Q: What sequence folds into this?
């Protein structure tokens, strides 16, 4: 009986990593997919204006956000938040922090079609708010549909006032889209799976507590290539 118990215990211990692996793999895949999605979007003709990306402190990428309906429309997505390093967001792009997007129906999302979202965080206050807690767009943070195209003006009133600019890609269509009413928050469980320990989103992004994981190297390399320097007004970063 003792031998059987020991055998069962050994089998149980070997099964734990096998059970945990799929969750860890999903988080790793999410980071890799974020890099693929952003690369595809930044390489289409009518994409995010470079001057806006150059003035963004952080970027959030949500691959394949799915719509659901239980009496009312809603959406749920898991993605990645990447910010420029340093106290004032003036350094190279740093390690990714996992993030969640939840909320009401999004206008361009039809049926069960998956939609990719890219969000630009345009000031330090907005970045720190997302890293610290759940933020509701349109209430706790001003948000607007982002203008698109390389010739799009980045000086419109709505763009200048918004803390967050949002874009979507669904069924081959790429456009700015309003996400007011939805919420953003850190995904602490996913961060633990990605980095193998409990770690706060703020420590990952603002304190450089962890290096870029292998799954995020393509994403970070892409951002450092496309937008190596923060071109925001230095006074706005203090």
A:
């Amino acid at each position: 009986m003792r031998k059987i118990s020991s055998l069962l215990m050994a089998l149980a211990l070997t099964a734990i990593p096998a059970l945990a692996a799929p969750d860890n793999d999903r988080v790793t895949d999410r980071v890799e997919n974020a890099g693929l999605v952003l690369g595809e979007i930044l390489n289409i003709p009518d994409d995010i204006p470079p001057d806006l990306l150059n003035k963004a402190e952080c970027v959030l990428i949500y691959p394949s956000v799915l719509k659901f309906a239980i009496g009312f429309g809603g959406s749920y997505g898991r993605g990645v938040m990447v910010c420029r390093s340093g106290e004032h967001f003036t350094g190279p792009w740093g390690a990714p922090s996992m993030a969640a997007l939840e909320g009401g129906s999004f206008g361009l999302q039809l049926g069960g079609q998956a939609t990719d979202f890219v969000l630009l965080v345009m000031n330090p206050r907005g970045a720190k708010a997302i890293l610290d807690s759940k933020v509701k767009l349109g209430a706790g943070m001003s948000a607007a549909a982002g203008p698109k195209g390389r010739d799009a003006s980045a000086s419109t009133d709505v763009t200048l006032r918004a803390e967050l600019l949002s874009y979507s890609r669904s069924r081959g269509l790429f456009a700015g889209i309003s996400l007011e009413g939805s919420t953003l928050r850190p995904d602490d469980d996913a961060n633990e799976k990605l980095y193998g320990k409990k770690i706060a989103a703020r420590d990952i992004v603002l304190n450089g507590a962890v290096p870029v994981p292998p799954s995020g190297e393509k994403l970070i390399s892409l951002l450092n290539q496309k937008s190596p320097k923060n071109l925001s007004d230095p006074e706005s970063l203090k």
The first strand starts at residue 58 and ends at 69. Confidence is low (pLDDT under 50) at residues 1-21, 68-73, 107-111. The beta strands are 58-69, 73-83, 97-103, 115-121, 135-136, 143-145, 164-170, 173-176, 183-186.
